Each structure stands twice: as C-alpha cells, then as structure tokens.
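User: Can you predict the 3D structure for this chain?
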Amino acid sequence: MERVKGRLRAGALGQLLRAALLWAALAAPAMAADGLGLNEERPLWQSAVGFGVLAVAVGVARRSPPAAFAATAALNLLTAPALFTVSWTPALGVFALLLGLRAPRTRPAAALLAAVGCAGTVRIALLGVDPAPEWLVLMCTLLFCCVFPWLAGRYWRQSRELTEAGWVRAARLESEQRLAEERARLRERARIAQDMHDSLGHELSLIALRAGALQVAADLPGHHRAAAADLRAAASDATDRLHRIIGVLREDDEPLPLAPAGESLEQLLARAADSGLEVSWETHGPEPLPTAEADAVGERILYRVVREALTNAARHAPGAPVRVAAVRETAGTTVTITNGRPTRESSPSSGGSGLLGLRAAVTEAGGAFSARPHGDGFQVRARLPAARTPARTEAAPAPPRPASRAPFVRARRRVALGFGVAAAAGAVLTGGAFAWYTYTETHSVLPPAAYAGLRLGTPQGEVARLLPDRSVADPPADRAPDAPPGAECRYYRASGELLTSVDHFRLCFADGRLIAKDVVPRVDGGEREPAGPVEDEEREEEWGS
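Assistant: Here is the predicted structure, written as structure tokens:
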C-alpha cells in the first residue's frame, strides 16, 4: 500500500512539474515582449491577469482541452480584437495543437474555432479602428495559429491511434495464429488417434468374433469355453474403452481421417470371413472395387465405410449375416452394407463416433450417407460422385482475416482534406490581405505636387478635394514632430511603392483650416541620421515647402 501511495505521489509531482514547465514556456514570450518594449505600456494588473489566465489554461488543458483553448482565445481577443498579440498568440497555437491531440471529437472543436472567429468579427465591427485589415489579420491568425495547429494535433492523434491499433492487431493475429497452430496439432492428434481406432477397433471386433465362434464350438471343453467367453468380453471392453478415448480426442463434426489401411476391399472382406463373420459381397459395373490405396478421396471413404460397417456388425449383431453390395456407375459409386438379426447376445457398449465421422466425410466429399434400421437388422449406404477430388491433407490453417483499416484511412483522409481546405483558405486570405494592402497603400498616396500646392490657412474643405480617398491607417507617429495642440492630424504616403519604407506627409487641421504640414522621412535600414543643411534644402525644394 505504501508503495502504491508513493507511486501516486510521484506521478502527481511529475504532472505538476510538467504543467509548471509548460506555463513557463508559454509565459516566456509575454515576459520577453514586455522586457524588449514590443508591447504598449499597460498596467501591471493586466499582465498579472494574463499570466493567471494562462496558468488556469495549463491546469485544465489535460482534462478539458476546449476550455484551455477558449480561455487563451478570450485572453487574445481582450488584448487585441484581431486575435494576434506578441504575448499570447504562441500560447494560443500550443493549446490549439493540444485541442486536436487530446479532444476525441471534431465537431465541438470546429464549433469553438468558429465561435472565436465570430467573436473576433463582432468585436472588430464594434471597436475596430480600421475593420477591413483587422478582420483579415483575425482570419489569418485564426487560420495559421489555430486551425493549422488543431489539424496537426488531429493528424498526430490519428497517427498514434493507428500505430496503437496496428500493434494490437499484430498481437491479436499472433495470438490467433498460435491458437490455430494449437488446434491444428490437436486435430492431427485426433486424426492419428482415429486412425488407430479404425484399425485397432476393427481388429478387436474380429478377435471378439473369433472368440464368440470358439465359445460355441461343440467339442470345446468347459474351461476352454469359459476362457473364450472371457476373451470375447475383454475384446469388447477394450473396443468400448478405445471408443471413449477417441471420443474425448475428436469432435463430433470432424470429418473421418483418410489414412490408407494398406489392404484392398477384397482382402478386408476375406479377413472378416476368416474371423467367423458371415459375409457375402457382390459387385456390379465394369470398374473394380475401391481399394485403400486409391488416389481419390471418394475411394478411400468407401473403403472406410465398409470397414466401419463390418466392425459395427461384428460388435452389435454377432452371428448375423452381412451382405456387401458395390455398384460402379459413370455417375459414381454406391456401397450398401446390410446385416440381419443377431443370433447371439452382444455385450453392452457405448455409442461411438464412427457413423458421425462417416457422415461428415461423405458429405464433405459431395456424396450422400444413410444409416438406419433395415428389417430385423441395420443398413449403411454411401454414395459418392465419380469426380476425383484432391486428397484431403491437414494443411496449415489460413491466417485470420485482417481487421479492416477503413475507419483509420477515412479519418486520415478527412484530416488531409481539412489541411487542403485550410491551405486553400490560407492562400485566399493571404491573397486578399495582400490585395487589401495594395489597395490601401496606393489609395493613400498624396502626390508631391499636390502637397507642394497646399498653403497654411486653407479651409479644410478645399484641402479635402486634393487629398486621396484614404489616409494611412498605421502612421509613423513615432518619427513625426510633435503635433500642434488641439489639432487633428492625418498622414499620407508620398509614394505608391510597396513593401518598402517611403516618406509620409502629415497634415494637421484645427478650426476647419490647415494649420501645419510636415514631411516624415522614411527609414533607410535603421535610424536616420540628421540631415545636413544641403540635404534639408534639397528635400524642401523637392516637396515644395
């Protein structure tokens, strides 16, 4: 008990340590961003709340991955409507990965991702400064930082399940193969035992028959007569014990073994007659009687039918005449064994499995078998078709049918389809974002000639007719001079060049008039050194101010 408790405590401490390491890894980007000044100034309590939410998400990530992802997504939306933040977006991607890896169902996770997108859209529509680019940033963040990691987690989970199922399937196949081999060994033992039963049972029956004939001899002394009776009883008891042993080793529906007996049917009948069995036989047709060495399975089955019928007649109907008739035709061979009423009392014996085995063997070979009372005796008839069948051998068992992999294949195809759809959506969003970027950048260009023609004090309405459709949404305010008190300033690009830094124009209005105009220089690969007098004069001449 103490050992179990110690293992539980060690497991709990290990989980706590892993959770602490995960929290530290996810909190590191926020700490680094604050230290490097990548985030805007914010109160300390906001950072503390963010780290607390992150700790709660890490705590519930194993038991409830959707709750952990939802908490992190809410933290990102509260920090930035577009969902992208330097501090918390890495944690959002990690919890999206864990959501796909640990959540067993797909629809709740997909609904949660859709809800995050809808919430961000509503917040941008209500509080966004420039809704269109912010919504594009939201969609790109949702796609690349949420959907893609979630699909990667789903793919990882299904790969693990497929690997585990493969090992389980391999173990099951190995176990089934061992069981099949064991069953094959048991069937082989039963076949050998049944073959011994056929041979020994027939011989014991003939011994009992000879002892019975000796017992009723008129010139036999009394003590010899008693010895013959004991011999007959002992042979019958041995036959019964042999039947019971074979009944334990074989199944009732198992086909009769087909090992050859090493003699022809004529020899079998002659030996039975020599042992005292009143047997007669007749044949019809051009073909000879079947032998035990015949290649066809049907020939050997007919030989076994005759031998089993003679054995049963000797055991259960001593003294009764036995008639064997074989008819060979083009369609097949029919053998009929009929015995009359016994003339002597038979010793009691338990029912064997010989007739059941005969019926199974004949039926398996495509023939017909019957065993029923006939008049005062019993009749056994077997008919087999003439078609030759390969000899039955105890082949190695066929391997079990493999378990279907269709569910795993379909699941992996769904994940691959999701990746394809997400990639297509990402391409569309990226193309849309670049198109919007191109539109906003080219429609916020104030030509230098128009800027040069602006005069301070001009009414704002007259200035508006010369201005482009849009102003710069993300102005370089950090590089601009201080704005006049109470003025509303707008920024415009001096050039339509894309993906590069350009000069900006700043126009400030107050009381409906233009009160200030400034040139904000571009960034040339770093901090721009103060311009000299000659450069300043050239720039003023260039912009006309």
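The chain has 14 helices and eight strands. The first helix runs from residue 2 to 36.
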